[in-house]
Amino acid sequence: MACKINWTTQAWLSFESNIVYLQKEWTTKEISNFVASKDKKLSILARQPEIGKSHNTKYPQMRCTHIH
């Protein structure tokens, strides 16, 4: 069973600003590949949350990952 992925507000705003930047600098195909890569990584994280790092001592079950 896959876990639910919740984005923090900061993570979502950062992702959106990166997409805006990429739209100015990259081709549509490159942006699509980047988004597909993000989707794949989050899908893996949902199925195998132990691959994410726990940065929160209060909620150690929370995991995070970087997308680049």
Helical content stands at 40-55%
Structural class: mainly alpha
Mean pLDDT: 86
Q: N- to C-terminal separation?
A: 26 Å
Return Rg in Å.
Answer: 14 Å
Uncertain stretches of 5 or more adjacent residues: none
Sheet having the most strands: none
What is the 3D shape?
globular
Q: Determine the strand fraction and express it as a percent band.
A: under 5%
What string gives the helices and strands in order? HH
Question: Given the structure, what is the number of helices?
Answer: 2
> How many beta-strand elements?
0
Provide structural commentary.
This protein has 68 residues and is mainly alpha-helical. The chain has a domain at 29-68. The chain has helices at 9-25, 28-47.
Sum up the structure in keywords.
68 residues, globular, 2 helices
Could you write a compact summary of the structure shown?
With 68 residues, the chain is mostly helical. The protein is built from two helices and no strands. 54% of the residues lie in helices and 0% in strands.
List strands and helices in order, with pairings.
Blueprint lengths: L8 H17 L2 H20 L21
